[in-house]
Amino acid sequence: MVQNFHRHLYIFYSFVFLLNVIHTFWSNEALYSFIGVLGMVMIVLSFPRAGRVFKVLGIILLAAGAFFFFSGSMTVLDIPDLFAGNIGLLLLLSMLPWMNSAVKAGRYNKLLKDLLQARVHTLGQLYGRSEATMVSLAAFLNLSSATISQDLLKEQLSKVNTGVRNSFVSMATLRGYSLALLWSPLEILLATSIFITGANYLEVLPWMLLIALFGFLIDTFTGRMLFGKIELPEKRTVSSTGTQGKLKGFILALVLFLSTVVFLANVVNFEFLFSVTIAIFPFALLWSLVLKRQKSFWKLGLPTWKHHTNHLDNFIVLLLSLSVLTETLNASPYLELLQEPIIAYSDSPLVIMLLIQFGFLFMTLVGVHPLATMGIFGGVSGLLMEALPAVTLAVLLSSTAIATVPSAPYGLIVTITSVNFQMNPYKIVWKNLPYTLLCGSIGVGVSLLTMLVYS
Questions:
Q1: If you write DSSP's letter for every residue of 346-361 in order, what string do you get?
Q2: By Cβ atoms counted within 10 A, which residue in 38, 86, 255, 308 is the most buried?
């Protein structure tokens, strides 16, 4: 009975998401409070099924929120509104499987295999190809790009020394994955940073691509230096027939999707987060129709979306607890204490940037999801934007947060790699920590560059 109930949670969640969409077009206080009440129900339903780390995070965030609530002037009637703030982020997370299903229906996941299996002679050459492939395709394939490439590399490198193979895979795939997240509109950390700052995605995008380019060039060079002299035991040749055309079609689809999001955000004047969310399903459906793969799209997409939405527990606990903390913090007198370091260094933007970079790194290493840290910084975003332009802050928050993805010991991509290759997650973290510091520092450097344009 309980299991059957959990299999149909997507119906209830979809109802809440629909109300949130209605509220976007019809701003009504009573409706917003009702969404908040339903958000409270969501967190009660999700908490028992959430992972241990997310339960602990949720308890800490709610406890801190309760402390700030009682320290301020809020009343009991304000409580429902506290849980409504991040429903839009949950809606975006719920919609992501539809894009992934369109990619799989079009068999673009096989494109990744073809690109990785092309002729290479050394591990150094394969490193650059692996990272470039991940950067190109992970924007749409997301986590599945990592699992597909890791499975293929495990097969390709079966005769390579286990330690070398594990180092290679944990570096090339995780770093390439994070480089794709830097500019992908489907990445929740980038979307959240734009949501917090109100920056224009079109203005943020070139800077994020610049960070990704610098990160890719430096890390590819590093990979060639580390693995360049190691010969591959087998040299595979894969026919390029159809591969180039398929890759061009994939890139065209990516450009069209980005153009759609930019049109909705800049011409229709929707918020960026909402623009991405409402663009995903229609675009994915039209894409599958153009490819004449609509039957596969529905066959793959519907059960995947239901299962994914039924299991949003970790993110529901994290994001709704975070909403409570952010709202209560902004209404609490203790906000001034948190603002003091920012005020003290308001004339030293580099110091503020480094505090944010190492704040993300420290919190990630102790097991706090970067999305939670992003929310904490979001709580003082008003003051941060007095010291930094909105575009600068968006670039800084997203780049330094995403840089920690390969070094998050409890992150999903690290966990998948750890299980897949039977590696200690902290070994993976240790291998990728230099990259995290480098990519975060590039993000800080580019953020300083943006100040010359937007200050």
A1: TT-HHHHHHHHHHHHH
A2: 86
C-alpha 26/C-alpha 81 separation (Å) is: 16
What is the Cα–Cα distance from 149 to 160, expressed in whole angstroms? Answer: 16
Q: Burial, 1: exposed, middle or buried (Cβ in 10 Å; 0-12, 13-18, 19+)?
A: exposed
Q: What pLDDT is stored for residue 318 in this prediction?
A: 83
Rounded Cα–Cα distance for residues 354 and 302 (Å): 43
> In this structure, are residues 332 and 434 in contact, taking their beta carbons and an 8 Å threshold?
no
What single-letter DSSP state applies at residue 411? S
pLDDT greater than 70 at residue 117: no
Whose structure tokens read 């575009």? 391
- Amino acid type, 81: D
Q: Which helix (H) or strand (E) holds 171?
A: helix 162-181
The answer to whether residues 211 and 439 touch, using CB atoms and an 8 Å cutoff, is: yes
- What are the helix (H) ranges across 26-122? 29-46, 52-71, 79-82, 87-105, 108-116
Instruction: Pick the more confident residue, 5 or 362.
Output: 362
Of the listed ranges 124-128, 134-138, 351-355, 386-390, the one predicted with least confidence: 134-138
**Residue at 354: amino acid letter:** L
Nearest Cα residue to 398 out of 245, 130, 188, 255: 188
CA-to-CA dists, residue 234 to 117, 147, 165, 230, angstroms = 11, 22, 14, 12
Q: Which residues contact 21 (CB under 8 A, 6 or more apart)?
A: 91, 278
pLDDT at 235: 54
pLDDT of residue 273: 81
Three-state DSSP class for residue 447: helix
Task: Give residue 250's identity as a one-letter amino acid code.
Answer: F
What tens digit of pLDDT does each residue of 170-219 get?
898 899 999 989 988 878 899 889 988 989 888 999 999 999 999 999 99
CB 371 within 8 A of CB 108: no
Nearest Cα to Cα of residue 88 among 36, 138, 146:
36
Residues forming beta bridges with residue 122, ordered by sequence position: 231
From residue 449, alpha-carbon distances to 28, 284, 388 in Å are: 41, 36, 12
Could you tell me how many residues make up the chain? 455
Handedness of CA 206, 212, 216, 218 (dihedral sign): positive
Tell me the residue type at 372: A
Q: Which region holds residue 161: left if phi is over 0, alpha if psi is between -120 and 50, else beta?
A: beta
Look at 17 and 369; give whichever has higher pLDDT: 17
For residues 224, 190, 115, 104, the Cα torsion angle rounded to the nearest 10 degrees is 160
Q: What integer best gives the mean pLDDT of the chain?
A: 85
